[in-house]
Each structure stands twice: as structure tokens, then as C-alpha cells.
Amino acid sequence: MLVLEEELDKVKLEAQQKIAQISSEKDWVDVKAFFLGKRGIIPNLLAKLPTLSPDEKKQFGQAVNSVKFFIESLLQERLKKIKEEEANKKLFEKKIDITLPGKVMRYPGSIHPITSVINEIVSIFTGMGFEVAEGPELESDYYNFEALNIPPEHPAREMQDTFYINDNNLLRTHTSPVQIRVMEKKAPPLHVICPGKVYRRDMDVTHSPMFHQVEGFVVDKDINFGHLKGVLTEFLHRFYGSNKTIRFRPSYFPFTEPSAEVDIECVVCQGKGCRVCKGSGWLEVLGCGMIHPNLFSVVGYDKEVFSGFAFGLGVERLTMLKYAIDDIRLFYEGNLSFLEQF
Amino acid sequence: MKVLIKWLKDFVEIKDSPNELAEKLTMVGLEVEEITETKDIFKGLIVAKVLETSLHPTSNKLKVCKVFTGKETLQIVCGAPNVMADQNVVLALPGALVQGNKIEKVTIKGVESYGMLCSEKELGLAISSDGIIILPNDLTIGKNILEEAYKDLDDVILNINITPNRGDCLSHLGIAREISAFYGKPLNMKLKTPKLIQKSKDFNIKIENIELCPRYTAKLIRDIKIMPSPDFIKARLSLCGMRPINNIVDITNYIMLSLGQPLHAFDYDLIQGKTIIVRNARDGEFLKTLDGKDRILKETDLVIADMSGPIALAGVMGGENSEVMSSTKNILLESAYFAPTNIRKTARSLGLSSEASYRFERGVDIQGAPLACEMAAQMMADFAEGKICAGVYDAYPSPKEQKIIKFRLDRCDNYLGFSCDPKTAEERLLALNFGVVKKRYEWDIIVPSFRSDVIIEEDIYEEIARLGFYNEISATLPTIPMRSRDDLEETRFFNEVQNLLIDRGAYEIITYSFIKEKDLLKLKFPMQENFVYIKNPLAEEKTLMRPTLLPSHLDVAINNHIRMNYDFIFYEMGKKYFVNGKNNYAFNEVPVLSLIFSGFYTSKSWYSDNVNVDFYIVKGFIEKLFDKICRMRFNVKPVDQNEYPFLHPVDSAEIIIEDKLIGYFGRIHPHVETNWELKRDIYVAELDIETLKKLYFNKKNQYYNFSRYPWVDRDITVIVDDNISYEQILKIMLNNSSNLLKDITLVDIYKGDKIGKNKKSLTFKLVYQAMDRTLSDEEVNEANSNIAKSLQKNLSVEFPK
Question: Quick one: which H or E segment has residue B2?
Fold first, then answer.
């Protein structure tokens, strides 16, 4: 008996070694036959059973069967592993160049830089609670000039060389007429911005006969110049970054009083003075002021009750500064090489 | 406007550096755009001595000079007749700027020249010169001319942007007044208003239109001698950008730059009848102005006339018939006030702007006229040997009253958003020459005569705020109430459409809203009467607000083709413009989405082939857009050649949705492609934005139940006459389908010999699916064969064998 048990232990050990060495399905079949096949080791051992006593038979039979199960489970495990390895090996037979360019059926286009800057401006102001309004580009002299406190023969008309359609109608030279149009229709409180195209008879590297402005204004009780400073400072900090220094300096517009021009620390040289800011360290970015009481008379607001401020942004200028574009004409040429960059 | 710091110092003490001064001027509203030290202008211009001169070997007009610079001797070729040895001269060394031109070493007719000897004209000190400047002999050779010969030219020029409201600042006195206000330093005004006289035995003055000329002062200066002005006048005028002419003209200009009052000097002996009449011109009256141009006048123009007719265009320009010339002996000097509006009208209608009209338009100080007259006369006595009598003749029939403005300090505080203490407010107003009369609840502010821009109470607020450089006002945010916001919906629509477009590969462009009329002809665009023409376009050509975006977009296309960008989709959301109705005073601005396709839609790469843009690619692009914007399909109609002569008659279609025409798409007509010299086929599309917007807002986006059972597909291939449309076939299939049919896809089209001429074969894939069960083959086959039968019945299609 002892001899038989020793033999069983040897078989177990041999099986462990042989099965571990199996490297293919074919090997596996051979090893399986070697141990479990008709003339394999296990059947050979079982063949010895009849020679044993009933007690030994039972004991030895159980021992052989347990070795048989052990070998079978080892073999199953091994087979699973071999199959996995082979499948894995097959995967690696495929070769690809992962650095090849990806397949793109159509690249997305882009929104024009002017539009995206307008969108950015609009979203900053709508975020503060401003409403968006629009007005016609073909305006009357009344809305473009007279209602804005610019009577005929006013020297300020010279600041804006105008395209005329007839004696009474023109291409608006600024978005300020929308101020009057909105005030005529609605009562305060008003917090409005008006983006749009405007036109002036002027054309060079920094002037275009058509360009874009965003007009903004607020009318309510107790609106003061400090609010104007607050709103525009907030806007400029959102647009250019809150580390930029801003200054308000007195200026003149016929439709505001007091009026101011707003300068921002040069975005190119950080205020040290360069070609872009003409050495001053400052860039003029917008004009603004408290709405002139004459405009309130025009729309029938009581200037003793309401006050307001207004401002106008030149979108092209902001865009040129933002992207360091030095020729305004690039915006209107529609050159793909330009548009692709945005 | 250019001002000189030394000249300003005649009026007010300035201790700050030019930069500091400029900063403060800018912060009170007088924006200094440029600071120029004249040292930089006159760099390289030195006092030099001519050692010897010899004749140029090949030119008898030129001389070759040896000139000593203090360090070395240079050879200079000079054409001036007056150059001689032992003279001190002004030498421009290589690198110096003379009238904007850089001096360089040059070879003149074979002889090298290392610089240039300068005349007064070349230094800007005279309008013409006969020869070079000969300097006194006692100067140090080699020094810059600003140090030795022309100390008056040594100055700092501030170029100030004067806003149109500040006519009072168009002079050194005006700027000095502002400086005196913010430094708190008194103004040095040594001269007092002269004695005014109402009668003169030498001349008569009649003002016929006192509205346009409320004040006219004059003075006679006898026995003057016309000659060049003294150096300081020439230098100051030149640095301020005016050409010195002669002492009389220069003095009038000098006083204008100094005090802001434009003056005019008449040759007294040329005034007919010794009478000045200020009157409106007669229609068609004629005057030759000093610039040599003949002017035909209108009744609205104000003129200065004598007994024979106009001798000057009041406030704008003098006439040649009374011009001061070298022979002039006696001067009648005019110092007047003309109404701004009328001056501007005249200057604009004649296209004639002068330093004088520029100032009158912006308002000069009506109280300053006699003083300017007297000061100019004094200078004519000093520098033109003139003889003057005491007093200034003054015609001022109804003197202007002082302007008084009611001022409330508490309202000022509320308006500006800072609390200004009464003492500061008063000090600032006094410093700016306002009078302050304090009453119990408000102040009366007396506006100085030169501040015609200060009219209302808020103007006073600005005066107080700007003297604090706006710095005292702290930034605060106002409160904004919540409210209903339709406008945000609009923004959302535009953002969504734009995102769809760029996601599908389109680039946004922005082009000018106006086009040339000839471009419409080039496009064969049907001309209409309601186009909006621009009266005064940039170019001479007939220009109009565009009734279509196409010409601009074809321009963009060809500009890209020229630069070898052939493949693109561009879009623009722009407007078309039309006159609305019969009169010319109301307009329609119609927003449209315009697209232009060129070249390959997909280009060759390692995984794809070149695919040209074609009708169906453009159609698919728009279909997808509609699907996303409004989940709707549109119908198409062939285009009418008369309406769309610019489109290819076959490769184009109108877009109809809910029986409404909302745009078109298609290929550009080959003739138009040729007109634009386009290098690729161009497809375009135009969609009405207002309709799109309506569809977008009406979009119903509701969930529908879907089947969880398997689907089955079947193919149907039919052979039909070529002129039967896909839509006809589709309609029959849909009309004869059961509710099991889920989808139909056209999977193949074949035309060719196998099926015969004028025939086509279409293969459809039909998908069947039930909501409640797995379909059996029998059910599907039956449904499919019903559809096939109906096609055979209705369209006599054949099925392939």
C-alpha cells in the first residue's frame, strides 16, 4: 500500500510539472493522453485495483480518483490559459501605426472672430442682467443725429463722416440711435446693450467703412457716474483680465454729459509703452458718459427723476487687440487662411 | 492742435516736466496724443563754416564746398547762389531730417556730397527762400542750431486732441487757462481790454445781419512795412505747423494761435468806399478767395463787402481783391465774432476749411475780439513799423448777456456718485473762471464768455469732476431687477444655428453690406426699383446696399481661389436691403443666411477620395440643418430662369416649407462663374432667417414610443422611366404601406444599357418592425409585395428579372 501511495504522490508531482510545461493545444492533448488516456498512467493504476483487498481497494480507489480529479482540473486550467495566450498572440499579429492621422470626415469650420468677440461681450453684459436690443442700419438723420443732441451743422458731425441715402436717411454711424428707439418704447428701468453694424466713410489699415459696435446703456432712478465706472470696470476686467489697470478720462460726446474715454493698460506692453499704444502705455477702448438730459427730453423722461449712463465699444478694435491683428481689412476678405485660425 | 510749452509759459507758470504736464492735460480732457521735443526734429542740423567753394566740374549752377563741422571738413555740393567762403551756415549732416526727408551721403553729378546746406524754407521758417541761411559770424561751429542760432526753435510740442466742444482751447491762452486751473496758479494776462470807440473818421462799418455777426471790431494800422517776421514769430508759427509768410500775415496767425481769435488783415487802400459791410451774399455773387479759387456764393453765406462787392468770406477766408501784398501800406485789421453754425454751413458747402473757420465753428470768445485786435496792432507797430491810434473800433449792437446756470450741489453729488465738499466745488469753479453766487438752496454759476460749451447744470458737474481727474468717483455696481427675457431666446437661436453650421465645416465670413451696381450686372441679378443706393459712396461707382449677398461671396470665393484655397464652405448671416413702399424713406432689412460651397467637400487622404461638392451634398447639408433646427423636411421646386438668372437652370432648386418659399440653393450659372473667373464649381444657398427663427421656436420636440422587437428588411428594385422622380415613387410606397413599415432608404441608382435608354433602376431598402411582436416572414413578405404591386399598378414599374 505504502508503495502505491508513494507512486501516487510521484504521479501528482509529475502531472504538475508536465502540465505546467504545456505550450500548445497539441501538447495538451498528448499530456492528457499520457495521464488520462486509455493506456495512460491513471487507468494503469486503476487496473491494479482487482489485485487489492476490499479495504485497500476502497482506500486506493479513492486516492487514485482524487489524483485523477486533480490532474483534470489542472489540465482544464491549463487549457483555458493556453487558449487565452493563443488568442492574445493572434491579436498581436495585427500591426497598426497609431501615429497615423485620425479619420475626420469633415473638420469643423469656425465662427468669425468679430462674431465671437460680440458673443463674448454680449454674454458678459447679459450675465450682469443687461438685455439685448437691435435697431435698423438704415437710419434717419433724426435718430442718428438730432435726437442724440447733434443738430445739423454741429461740429461733432465731422467726427463721423456719413454715408447718405437721401437728405433724410443714412447708414447709421453708430449704434447710439438704438438708445433713443428703446427709450421711446419702454420706460425705465432699462439695462440694454445693442450690438450691430455701423458705417463711416473712412478706409485705411485701422478704419473700415463698415464695422461693428456694441452700444450699452442704463436708465433708472439714482444712476450715477460711479455706476458707469463700476459696470465698465467689471466688463473690462472680464474681457481683458482683472489685473489690468483702467482709467476714465474726461472727453466729449454730444449725447453724454459728463463724458469719458476709457483707457486700459496696454495689453501688448503691459503699460510700458510700445508701438501699439504709441508709447503712452494706454489703449483707448471705449467712450461713455452720463446720458445727456436732452435725450431724456426727446423721449419724454423726467431728468429730475431718472438718470442713466451709456457707452459704446468698437468691436473691431477690441478684436484686433485681442488677437494682435494689425490690418482691419482681414476681417472682411474672407480668406480661408485667416478664418482657419479661429 | 499743436502747442508749445515755452509759449504756454508766457501765460502760466509750469514746473512739471512735459510728460507730467501732458498726463494732467489728458486727465482733464485735453488728450495729449504726442509729445515732440524739437531737438529730435532738428537733430543733425549744426552750425558749420564754409571754408572754400569751387565750381562743380560738370554743372555751372552747383558749387562744391569744403565745410568745417567743428570736428572735420566735409565736401558738400550746394546749388544756392549765395554760398561763399568764410560764411557760417546751417549744415544738415547725414541722418538729419529736412522737411521729412532723410539726408544721406549722395553723389551729385559725379561729386560726392556729405550733407546739405539749408535755406529758411527747408527749416520751415519761410514759404520760399532765394538762398541758404547765412548765420552771424560769432557762433560756435559744430553746435546744434537750437543751441546757437535758433534758440526759439528749442521747445517741446504737445499735440493735443481738442474735442469739438472746446473751441476755447484752440489757443495757447485756452490751454494755459486749463493749466492754471489744475495747478492753482494765476494766469499772466498783462493786457487789459483796450479803449473801445464807436466812430472812426477813416472807415465805416455796417453789420446788416447781427445774428450771424454779433460783433465786429477793427483797427487801422498805417504805414506798415511788409517784411519777414522776427525769428521768434517764424519759429513759433513753424513749430505749430503754420508757414511763415510775412510780418502782417504772420502776426494775425500768431495772435490766433496765442489767443484763439482769428483775425483778418485787409489792404485798407483796396477797400472801396472805405466801408465794411457785413451782409449775406447775393445768390450767385462771386469772390476769388486767397487760395486762388473762384467761389460762387449763396444767400446763406455771410460776406465782408465793401462798396463794390464781397472782399472776404466772413470767418472763412479773405478775398484776393483785398489781399495784403508786398506793396501794402495801410492795414484794416478785422477781429470779429461770427455765428458758428453758419460758418460751418458755408465752409462745408464750399468744401473750404481754414484755421479761422475751424475756430469760428467751435465758438470763439466774443469778449476777446477787441483785445486780440489791439494786441495784433501793437505787434504790427513793433514788427512792421506801423502807426496806430488809441482804441479799437467796436460794433457790438446788442451785447451778449452773461449766462447763469442754476447749480445744486446735492444733485451733483448724486449724479456723480461722490460727495464733493462745497469748498472744493467752489474752488474748482473759480479756478476755471466761473463766477459763483451762493444762495440758500442752490448756487448761481456765472459762465465765462469763452465757455460756450457750458449750457446746462450737468455741464457744471463735469467741470467739477474733471478737475479731480474723475478719480474721486469710486466704481460701484447698480442693482438690476429680474425680468422676462425674450432677447435671450434670440441669442440662443443664433448660437445654435452658428454651432450647427461650423460643426458641419462651414466658416463664418463677414463682408461689406454695400456692393457696386456693376457687380449685380455681372451676376445677371434682376434689377428692381426698390434697391437702396448710397448717395455719396467711397468710390465714384454707383453703390448700393446689397439686395443679395452673392456678389460679395463670389468675391470672397475668387480671392480664395487666387490664393489657391479651393475647398471651402463659407456662410454669412447678413442682411439684404430694400426700399419699403413707394417713398424713399422707409426700408426693409431682411436677414438671410447665405452659404457658398467650393471645390471638394471631402478631399483625398489616406482613408478617403476626393468628392466634389454637388447638388445633393448641398441639399443634404441644408436638410440636416433643417432637421436640427426644426425637425422638418422641406420640399423643392425647380428654379425659374427669369427669377434666378444667376443660378444653373438644372442644378438648382427653391426651398419650400409649409407651402412657403424660404430660400434657394444650387450651382452658380456657368456664365456667372466665367464673369468671376472662378476656378471651381460654386454652389450657393440662401435661407430666410426670420422664417428659420419661427420654425425653430415652433419646434416640437416630443418623445415617441419605439419598438423593442427585432426589425426585418427587404429590398425592392424597380426600373422606371427616367422622368419619374424619387418623390413620386416614395409617395406611392408610403401610401400603400402598412404601419409595419418603419423606414425606406434609397440604396442604389443605376442607369445604363442593361436596362435600356431613358430608364433608371432604383433599389430601396425597406425596414419593417412591429410595436408588439416579432414579425413573421409571411407578414413581412406580404407587406413588401403589397408595396411592390402598388408601384407596378401606379407607375408601371418593371422589376428586374
Answer: strand B2-4
Question: Above 90 in pLDDT, residue B303?
Answer: yes
Across A106-121, average pLDDT = 94
Render pLDDT for B498-515 as a digit per residue (tens, 0 to 9): 999 999 999 999 999 999
Q: Mean pLDDT of all residues in chain A? A: 92
Distance from CA of B527 to the nearest CA of A (A): 18
List of chain A residues whose C-beta atoms are within 8 Å of the C-beta of residue B556: 333-334
pLDDT of residue A139: 96
For B391-415, write each residue's pLDDT tens digit: 999 999 999 999 999 999 999 999 9
> How close does chain A come to B362, measured CA to CA in Å?
7
Residues in Cβ contact with B447 at an 8 Å cutoff, skipping those fewer than 6 apart: B402, B403, B404, B405, B434, B454
Yes or no: say if B345 and B353 are a contact pair by the CB < 8 Å rule: no
Q: B348, exposed or middle or buried, with CB in 10 Å at 0-12, 13-18, 19+? A: middle
How much is the pLDDT for B189? 79
Tell me which residues of chain A, numbers 85 to 124, contact chain B at a CB-CB cutoff of 8 Å: 100-101, 103, 105-112, 114-115, 119, 122
How do B204-207 and B275-280 pair as beta strands?
A: parallel
Residues 6+ apart with CB under 8 A from A163: A170, A171, A199, A200, A201, A209, B514, B534, B535, B536, B537
**SS3 (DSSP) at B392:** strand
Any B CB within 8 A of A126 CB: yes
Residues in CB range of B177: below 8 A, 6 or more apart: B11, B168, B187, B432, B433, B450
- SS (HEC) of B588-625: EEEEEEEEEEECEEECCECCECCEECCHHHHHHHHHHH
Sign of CA dihedral B411, B412, B418, B424: negative
Return the percentage of chain B with pLDDT > 90, whole number: 88
Q: Where are the alpha helices (DSSP H) in B351-389?
A: 355-362, 369-384
Which residues on A lie below 8 Å from B587 (Cβ)?
136, 138, 169
Buried b (16+ CB within 10 A) or exposed e, B174-197: bbbbbbbbbbebeeeeeeeebeee
ipTM over 0.95: no
> Closest Cα of chain B to A167: distance in Å?
9
Chain B's closest residue to A202, CA to CA, is B538
pLDDT digits (tens, 9 = 90+) for A149-162: 999 888 777 766 89
- Distance, CA of A303 to CA of B219 (rounded, Å): 48
Q: How far apart are CA B16 and CA B182, in angstroms?
A: 12
Q: Would you say residue A1 has pLDDT above 60?
A: no
User: What are B429-435's contacts with CB under 8 Å, separation 24+?
Assistant: B429/B460, B429/B463, B429/B464, B431/B180, B431/B181, B431/B182, B431/B184, B431/B467, B432/B177, B432/B178, B432/B181, B432/B463, B432/B467, B433/B177, B433/B181, B434/B460, B434/B463, B435/B402
Residue in B269, B284, B282 with CA at minimum distance from that of residue B323 = B269
Query: A11 to chain B nearest CA, in Å?
Result: 56
Instruction: Please check whether residue A271 touches B, CB under 8 A.
Output: no
pTM of the complete model: 0.88
Closest CB to B416 among A159, A224, A340: A224
Task: State the average pLDDT over residues B310-319.
Answer: 95
Q: How many CB pairs under 8 A join A and B?
A: 242
Question: End-to-end distance of chain A based on CA atoms, in angstroms?
Answer: 89
The span from the CA of B640 to the CA of B196, in Å, is 83
Q: Residue written as cell 492742435? A: B1
pLDDT at B644 over 70: yes
Residues of chain B with C-beta less than 8 angstroms from the C-beta of A114: 510
Write out the DSSP string of A9-35. HHHHHHHHHHHHH--SHHHHHHHHHHH
